[in-house]
Amino acid sequence: MVKAGAAVIPPPLLPGDGRFGCGPSKVPARALAALADAAPTLLGTSHRQAPVKQLVARVREGLQELFGPPPGYEVALGNGGSTAFWDLATLCLIRERSQHLVFGEFSAKFAKAAAEAPFLAPPEILESEPGSHPEPRAGADVDAFCLTHNETSTGVSMEIGRPGREDQLVLVDATSAAGGLPLDPAQVDAYYFAPQKCLASEGGLWLALLSPAAIERAQLLESSDRWVPASLSLTTALQSSRLNQTYNTPAVATLFLLAQQLDWLLEQGGLDWAAARCRASSEIVYRWAAEREWARPFVPDPAQRSAVVATVDLDASIPAPRVSAILRQNGVVDTESYRKLERNQLRFGLFPAVEPEDVLQLTRCVDWVVEALRAEQI
Fold first, then answer.
1. Which residues neighbour 304 within 8 Å (Cβ) at sequence distance 6 or greater?
2. For residue 59, is pLDDT > 50?
3. Is the pLDDT of residue 263 over 90?
4. Taking the model in full, what pTM does it have?
5. Pure H helices in the chain
6. I need a surface site. Which of 87, 130, 144, 371 has the fewest CB within 10 A?
């Protein structure tokens, strides 16, 4: 072993920005600069007054333009993030019984929420091993299919389509997918997400693209004898959203950063452009991993490999936590595997704000670290 200075990655190999986290993700410097400029007339002002209401309108209109849904779809938002929306959906969108595809940590959490709801029948849970996804069972006696567009914990994505009848809602967790993966919005009834991944903002906010059928279901359930607290009421959130407000006080900086990212995505070419950019970044990673004898893509089926969250297994002789630690010492951060997966793995967030050239530099940094470790130079 040599002195610690040998762990300094040569500067020409380093990315321009070393943030590759899967959430919170990279917030562009241009958005932070715009926030600083807007702060004197925006931050610390009432969220019931015009400046913040105009900001909410900008977000809602931007999401409508980004996704291009059929007529009648609406954008709602509220505080609490996707975790809160799981509870909200359990109360306001599942009538009696749901089907859940479980293939990682986050898809399992929604299934758990539905299973613990005393007013619902036990959900149908279809599971697969991490690194793959199950397929929905179309003939199921359920009134809601609960899907996950991208499983953040494992780097598995799935195509979204309607598995069953029109009266069976399709509820899609898109937290790490929205704004980075292709979508046909006509295939979903509630496409819900938080803004701290592809949308380059902070957490604590949920947003949802809602179909007329989802809105009607919420109105029906909330007018029944089912008790729904106001903070978890979808109809209340929708009524507030139509006024360009949230039910309770939002984080205004989060809304501003979200609006900045939406403006940027639309200026670049919208969802098609963003999806192509993420795909280009992911192809860099998967091609690199396939070419290394000490690495391999974790997801075996190329069709299920995520374009926004890439997971790469390393040979047992190369400790991934050590690789991530050395990268972090050099300003290349958040490459660790998802903690509960317990694999010798690297995980990279490849959201639209991440430059593909920086992704290429990231792979060069990993090569350097692995070579140094194998030569026992660090």
1. 132, 133, 156, 157, 158
2. yes
3. yes
4. 0.96
5. 29-42, 50-67, 81-92, 105-116, 212-222, 234-242, 252-268, 270-290, 320-329, 356-374
6. 371
